[in-house]
Design a protein that fits this description.
The complex is a heterodimer. Chain A is built from two helices and six strands. By secondary structure, chain A is α+β, with helices and mostly antiparallel strands. In chain A, strands 1, 2, 3, 4, 5 and 6 form a six-stranded antiparallel sheet that branches. The model of chain B has no long low-confidence stretch (mean pLDDT 87). The chains are: A alpha+beta, B mainly alpha.
Chain lengths: 216, 215
């Protein structure tokens, strides 16, 4: 009997000791990593935000204010991140983390930069699973296709022409991919529609949030 | 000396987990689109194998047989989680590409097989060496398959190596004078590539056996 009890105690001790050691290991790597991971993610966010801004904003000191927008036009049933870029309390651009829900393999995560006068300043596909060699040409690393949105607005071209050439629209198609460019063009157009309807509301919310931030 | 050689040969060639046992194929096939992707996942797996084999072998006398498998999994999982966190902190771009496949090393049956069959029975140095060899074997296969698919599929070699080796590697990428065949980087290309490597291995074994028979 004593032997069996001894082995239960020993089992508990061994399991407990290994569990504690494992927890300490994971905890210490987490402590070591979390600051760096956050810095990496921030650096990537800033770099990707800059990529869709009007280049003439150049070195202006911009303060991104994060707002959540909730609208089906932005492609998600969940609230979507919108960054209002403030230069000295004045909004100079809005960047939408729009989703194109109807990508070929999965939803396409876009960043759409819009100037206050409702022109596109840049679009990037930041996360997607489009087919390599076909639909992935929407990626800036693969082709310049996504640059054709620069400077476009709902007045140029007019809304009925916001479609790919294959559908008699004004935007280039991609050889071998139909679904992907359609999804992106539609998502960018919807973002402009949303921005036209909610611009003042978004800018007011951002100004309010920026003022709150300054008070603290 | 010959024992060390035999241990290394077992992991690298005779019982190479990727080429002979065909274990851990899911990450092998999914990640091997370029050299740098394959090599990084291979190195991460090697580090895990070396560390778990050493740790488990050190503790083999203290481990309670009835609960050994949960303990192995706990040890492997905490090591892999730490490596995943460190890669996310130090090799951010690569971590973005490899994504889910680093945590998936936990479920790589090649790791559990090593721990169960070798580390829990053998002295530390043998277990460590066997783990190292069992990691470097698949690592070499991942890098070779990555090279094959990258050359045929993208027409480049060593693209993006600076993500792993820093600025020093920025001059390494070679661009070949053709665009590449898409099929090689799509999933079927992984199977064709692995089949080619398996055929190559079998061919070399056959040839050696024929030579031995002729003598």
């Amino acid at each position: 009997m004593a032997g069996a009890e001894g082995s239960v105690v020993r089992t508990l001790f061994v399991v407990g000791a290994i569990a504690v050691a494992a927890a300490l290991l994971v905890q210490s790597s987490y402590e070591f990593s979390k600051g760096r991971i956050a810095a990496n993610e921030r650096a990537r966010l800033v770099a990707s935000l800059n990529s869709v801004l009007d280049p003439t904003l150049g070195d202006t000191d911009l303060n991104p204010v994060l707002i959540n927008a909730h609208d089906e036009l932005l492609g998600s049933p969940e609230p979507v991140d919108v960054f209002i870029m403030m230069a000295a309390e004045r909004p100079v651009a809005a960047i939408f983390a729009t989703l194109a829900p109807d990508g070929y393999n999965a939803e396409i995560q876009l960043l759409v930069g819009v100037s206050p006068d409702e022109q596109i300043t840049g679009v990037r596909a930041v996360r997607h699973r489009e087919t390599p060699g076909l639909g992935d040409a929407i990626d800036i690393d693969k082709s310049d296709w996504i640059r054709q949105f620069d400077g476009k607005s709902l007045a140029n071209p007019m809304p009925p022409l916001w479609a790919v050439a294959k559908d008699e629209g004004a935007f280039d198609s991609l050889t071998g991919a139909t679904v992907t460019p359609r999804a992106v063009v539609k998502a960018v157009k919807n973002t402009l529609v949303y921005f036209a309807a909610h611009r003042d509301e978004l800018f007011a919310a951002a100004a309010g949030a920026a003022a709150d931030g300054n008070d603290q | 000396m010959s024992e060390i050689k035999a241990l290394l040969a077992r992991g690298l060639w005779r019982e190479n987990p990727a080429l002979v046992q065909l274990l851990g194929l899911c990450p092998l096939l999914a990640v091997s689109t370029t050299v740098v992707n394959g090599l990084t996942l291979g190195l991460a797996t090697t580090i895990v194998l070396l560390a778990t084999n050493t740790l488990v072998s050190l503790m083999r006398k203290a481990l309670v047989p009835a609960v050994r498998i949960p303990l192995f999994v706990l040890i492997i999982a905490s090591l892999v989680t730490s490596i995943d966190l460190l890669m996310n902190a130090l090799l951010f771009d690569l971590h973005e590409i490899l994504g889910l496949f680093v945590p998936l090393i936990i479920t790589n049956c090649a790791v559990l097989a090593q721990v169960e069959t070798i580390a829990s029975r053998e002295p530390v140095w043998r277990a460590a060496l066997a783990g190292l060899a069992a990691g470097l074997g698949p690592c070499a296969v991942l890098a070779a398959l990555g090279a094959l698919r990258e050359i045929v599929g993208s027409g480049t070699l060593f693209a993006g190596m600076s993500m792993l080796f820093g600025e020093a590697a920025s001059a390494w990428p070679i661009t070949l004078p053709f665009d590449g065949m898409l099929i090689a980087i799509l999933p079927p290309g992984a199977f064709f590539g692995l089949a080619a490597l398996l055929a190559l291995r079998n061919w070399s074994i056959d040839r050696r056996a024929q030579r031995a028979a002729a003598q």
